[in-house]
Amino acid sequence: MDTEKKPICVIVLGMAGSGKSSVIQKINSHLAAELDKSSNAYFINLDPACLEVAYSANIDIRDTVKYKEVMKQFTLGPNGGIITSLNLFATRFDQIMKIIDKRKSEYKYVILDTPGQIEVFTWSASGTIITETLASEYPTVVVYVLDVVRNANPVTFMSNMLYACSILYKTKLPLLLLVNKIDIMDHKFVLDWMHNFEAFQASLEEDSSYSANLARSMSLVLDTFYQELKVVGFSAVTGEGIADFFSNIDKCVEDYEMNYRPEYLKIKMAAEEAKKQKQQSQ
User: Fold this and answer.
1) Is 241 left (phi over 0), alpha (psi -120 to 50) or beta?
2) Angle between helices 78-90 and 125-135 (to 10 degrees)
3) Is it the case that residue 248 has pLDDT exceeding 60?
4) What cellular-component terms does GO give this entry (predicted)?
5) Could you report how far apart the first and last alpha carbons of the chain are, in Å?
6) What does the alpha-carbon distance between residue 59 and residue 212 come to, in Å, rounded to a whole number?
7) Architecture in CATH of 1-138
8) Where do the domains of the chain lie?
């Protein structure tokens, strides 16, 4: 596979309020301002419940699946409505792949914005289908957006790191940690907590709660995860860190080609073989 002729798929995940859509909007405006149009991006919104997006989406799930109608028809709550809407969209994701394939020479990136209810995408069948379908055809990277202000609390920080680690193992794809809102708060403490065990322990010194004790224990467990994790400080307001973001995306693509692509080729071949056997049995 020649990665230069195929777009890089970037799946943007993060907790509600972390600034995923704002990050994508800043990426969009940055690329639009570039004189070199070879770095164009194709944007896909996968959040059926959002009222509006801050960027111009090329494909928007809301155009094909009406979230409130799904809730009403199937008597679902908000999260159930989002999951079902994604499931309905995923059944036709092969059509999205055809669109991407048709226009792959025009774009360097395909950027996907996901629901704020992060577990709805990460742990759902539709999220797995979309992720595996993309990764079996194109270099794919997962970007986990972290709100630096909320994560100044060490217990909250550890919760996010555990979630990021679970996403790495669930998707089996390169993961980039994007520490957002550094225009409000410096993210150096995040790097310090990752690479200095004593510094993280010191931040929990006055907290004797069960969650704090668990965070202390987990900081040792995640040591290997931290060593391999790529981290970028970013501001969706000022654009600070955007060059570092694209540089690390390229590094993640190299990682994908070397360590992750062979696994996804196996998944693709197994799916094609199953489809072939089904056709023969009919």
Assistant:
1) left
2) 40
3) yes
4) cytoplasm; nucleus
5) 33
6) 43
7) 3-Layer(aba) Sandwich (3.40)
8) 1-138, 144-273
Dmax (CA) for the chain in angstroms is 67
Taking CA atoms, 248 is separated from 13, 84, 161, 189, 233, in Å, by 16, 34, 19, 20, 11
pLDDT, tens digit, 9 for 90 and up, residues 176-235: 999 999 999 999 999 999 999 999 999 998 888 989 998 988 888 898 899 999 999 999
Contact indicator for 19, 236 with CB cutoff of 8 Å? yes
Q: What is the 3-state secondary structure (H, E, C) of the chain?
A: CCHHHCCEEEEEEECCCCCHHHHHHHHHHHHHHCCCHHHCEEEEECCCCCCCCCCCCCEEHHHCCCHHHHHHHHCCCHHHHHHHHHHHHHCCHHHHHHHHHHCHHHCCEEEEECCCCHHHHHCCHHHHHHHHHHHCCCCEEEEEEEECCHHHCHHHHHHHHHHHHHHHHHHCCCEEEEEECCCCCCCHHHHHHHHCHHHHHHHCCCCCCHHHHHHHHHHHHCHHHHHHCEEEECCCCCCCCHHHHHHHHHHHHHHHHHHHHHHHHHHHHHHHHHHHHHHHHC
Listed residue (112, 114, 158) closest to 135, CA to CA: 112
